[in-house]
């Protein structure tokens, strides 16, 4: 197990760049926990708790600037939230959970690195028959793995031209918060599984979330940081798939 003080620093370093794009950072927290041999029963609830704080901060910050579309959010969230609750209630067992989580971490890295930049293009909202099952799938993955699903929703919204780039962060933050809460409730709010250092971990990501969501993206070397985060995700995913 890694020294708790060092883990606090790593959590802060992960939360800050994630918050700049409206993400809670669960995939990075899970990657760090996988690399530092956290107990499996601690990983999902801790990642979801940390996700709740950072995504809430990010949503508040982006909502203040008008970067949110309630109708588009609901198109995905209505089906995602109950499926996130269902996913959170399912225990896949150690081996299957490691395989799914490893695959999700590697896919998350790809979503970060290859996130398309299509700002300024004309957008159109998706049809409900497309958005609802998409949200359901992302919600189920979020609940099963302890993530919020936003790391997949963000590039999808931009790639499919369903939303303007400036509104994607706000939508993703709200989506992540709701799925994280539902996933945690689906696990029976297993706060008893959380490590004793959790308040310090929460403090680290809260500070990171405030800084990341409160500054202009142009002030942060985001590309380099995101690539570093993607590398961590790939290493952790490979570690999980190889065990």
From TrEMBL:
It is a multi-pass membrane protein. The keyword Transmembrane helix applies. Its main location: membrane. InterPro entries: TM_pro_TauE-like (IPR002781), TSUP/Inactive_protease-like (IPR051598). Keywords: Cell membrane, Membrane, Transmembrane, Transmembrane helix. It is found in: Cell membrane; Membrane. Signal peptide: none annotated. The chain crosses the membrane at residues 43-60, 72-90, 96-114, 135-162, 168-186, 198-219. The keyword Cell membrane applies. Belongs to the 4-toluene sulfonate uptake permease (TSUP) (TC 2.A.102) family. This is Probable membrane transporter protein.
């Amino acid at each position: 197990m890694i020294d708790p003080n060092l883990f606090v620093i790593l959590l802060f370093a992960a939360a800050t760049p994630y918050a700049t794009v409206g993400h809670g950072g669960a995939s990075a927290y899970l990657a760090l926990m996988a690399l530092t041999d956290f107990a499996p029963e601690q990983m999902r609830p801790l990642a979801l708790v940390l996700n709740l704080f950072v995504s809430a901060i990010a949503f508040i910050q982006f909502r203040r600037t008008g970067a949110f579309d309630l109708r588009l959010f609901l198109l995905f969230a209505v089906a995602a939230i109950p499926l996130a609750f269902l996913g959170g209630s399912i225990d896949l067992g150690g081996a299957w959970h490691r395989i799914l989580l490893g695959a999700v971490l590697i896919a998350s890295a790809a979503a970060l690195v290859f996130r398309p930049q299509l700002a300024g293009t004309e957008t159109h909202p998706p049809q409900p028959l497309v958005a609802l099952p998409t949200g359901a799938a992302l919600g189920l993955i979020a609940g099963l793995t302890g993530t919020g699903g936003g790391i997949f929703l963000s590039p999808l919204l931009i790639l499919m031209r369903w939303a303007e780039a400036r509104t994607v962060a706000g939508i993703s933050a709200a989506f992540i918060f709701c799925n994280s809460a539902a996933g945690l409730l689906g696990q029976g709010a297993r706060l008893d599984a959380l490590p004793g250092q959790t308040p310090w971990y929460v403090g680290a990501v809260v500070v990171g979330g405030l800084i990341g969501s409160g500054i202009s993206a142009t002030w942060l070397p985001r590309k380099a940081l995101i690539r570093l985060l993607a590398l961590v995700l790939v290493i952790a995913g490979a570690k999980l798939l190889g065990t």
